[in-house]
């Protein structure tokens, strides 16, 4: 039989273990996604996790980080104080452009139109997203895995909001997806700058970007 002293030591050890596990759980638990208010809310930007505090949530093994801008967007984002070219990104974010995934519409009038070429998905007459290629869903699930938390960013927050809506419409869990806002407003410590001036000329070091292009010519088109 165990002595009272041994039982007490065991209980203390079990208590410390439970405390440690509980502390780790609380420390790593993410707040539930919640859209903020005002104009940023109209874009779908999250209230709790956004460009102001995203540094606290980087490097998580249970999460993926996606920036959905184009390297060089045809839309004139300079007209609203942004950058049509990808001027930088937050460390850890990989880039896969939203305009290659769905047709983009309802942009601010000042910026004009973005890319309007081939896309992985389009909307049918009922307003539902349908794949244009046999590989469309596989590609989406590969870059936006359903078993991970998904942090999405873009320039100002609009593309990220659209990307979250697409995923939710196609069956992803909305409680695992965060629109973390716009890189243009990021002031954290993990800024990887792509745009720089050399001898008075602006250049973009796109080689720094972990960029995922979609080669539509290699995909199998679905005939309607």
**Coarse structural class:** alpha/beta
What is the overall number of helices?
4
The CATH superfamily of the largest domain is Rhodanese-like domain
- Determine Rg (CA atoms, Å): 22 Å
User: At CATH's second level, what is the architecture of the largest domain?
Assistant: 3-Layer(aba) Sandwich
DSSP strand content = 15-25%
**Strand ordering within the main sheet:** 3-1-6-7
* Largest sheet composition: 4 strands, parallel
Broad shape: globular
Helix and strand string, N-terminal first?
A: HHEEEEEHEHEEEE
Folded structure, characterized:
The chain is of the alpha/beta class and 224 residues long. It has 2 domains: 1-30; 32-218, Oxidized Rhodanese, domain 1 (3-Layer(aba) Sandwich). It has 4 helices and 10 strands; from the N terminus they run H-H-E-E-E-E-E-H-E-H-E-E-E-E. It has helices at 4-28, 38-42, 136-143, 158-169, and strands spanning 63-67, 88-90, 94-95, 121-123, 129-131, 149-154, 177-182, 191-193, 195-198, 201-204. The strands form 4 sheets. The chain has a 4-stranded parallel beta sheet, covered by helices on one side. The chain has a two-stranded antiparallel sheet with strand order 2-8. The longest helix is centred in the first third of the chain and has 25 residues, at 4-28. Residues 20-26 have low confidence and may be disordered.
Write a concise synopsis of the structure shown.
With 224 residues, this protein is of the alpha/beta class.
């Amino acid at each position: 039989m165990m002595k009272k002293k041994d039982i007490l030591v065991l209980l203390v050890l079990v208590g410390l273990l439970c405390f440690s596990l509980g502390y780790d759980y609380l420390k790593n638990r993410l707040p539930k996604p919640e859209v903020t208010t005002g104009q940023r809310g109209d874009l779908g930007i999250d209230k709790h996790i956004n460009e102001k505090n995203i540094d606290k949530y980087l490097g998580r093994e249970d999460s993926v980080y996606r920036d959905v801008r184009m390297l060089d967007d045809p839309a004139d984002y300079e007209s609203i104080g942004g950058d049509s070219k990808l001027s930088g990104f937050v460390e850890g974010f990989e880039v896969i452009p939203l305009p290659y995934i769905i047709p983009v519409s309802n942009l601010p009038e000042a910026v004009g139109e973005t890319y309007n070429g081939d896309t992985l998905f389009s909307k049918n007459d009922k307003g539902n997203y349908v794949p244009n290629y046999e590989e469309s869903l596989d590609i989406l699930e590969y870059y936006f895995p359903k078993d991970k938390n998904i942090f999405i960013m873009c320039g100002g927050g609009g593309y990220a909001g659209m990307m979250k809506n697409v995923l939710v419409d196609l069956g992803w869990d909305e409680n695992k997806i965060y629109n973390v806002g716009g890189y243009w407003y990021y002031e954290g410590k993990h800024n990887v700058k792509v745009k720089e001036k050399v001898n008075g000329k602006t250049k973009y070091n796109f080689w720094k970007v972990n960029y995922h292009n979609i080669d539509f010519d290699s995909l199998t088109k679905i005939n309607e």
